[in-house]
Predict the structure.
Amino acid sequence: MQSVMTHTLLKYMMVMSALAAPFALQAGRFKPLQEPNIQVEVDVTAEQLENVIKRALVGRGWEVVSVENGVVNARLILRTHIAEIRIPYDTQTIDLEYVSSRNLRYVKRKNGKEIIHRNYNSWVNNIKQDILVALSVYR
């Protein structure tokens, strides 16, 4: 009798593991949404900052959609993925803010936590690094 129960339990565990496997594999693809902030620690004008931001975006394949009143709006279209960001800036700070996306599985959970495909975070962090490198020229 115990062998039948053990066998049934083993089968149950195998079925549950098989059902959970796709979710476990996808869990690594999604991360908390990052919205990087840059403290501008060099003496630059707003115009110079705008140019640095636009060069960083274009260098990574982003399209600058609009620029007005200290805000750059940009879009990345990569295969079937689309990401849109808003970058408000002044001579002290630059923020990379999420606006919207398609096929990146952005979700805002009930607890307020936002998650998105990990590639999005890599993309915005690459922009941040490129901006920091460009700003280092002004030291």
Observations:
- The CA atoms of residues 14 and 20 lie 10 Å apart.
- The beta strands are 30-32, 37-39, 63-68, 71-78, 81-88, 93-95, 97-102, 107-108, 114-117.
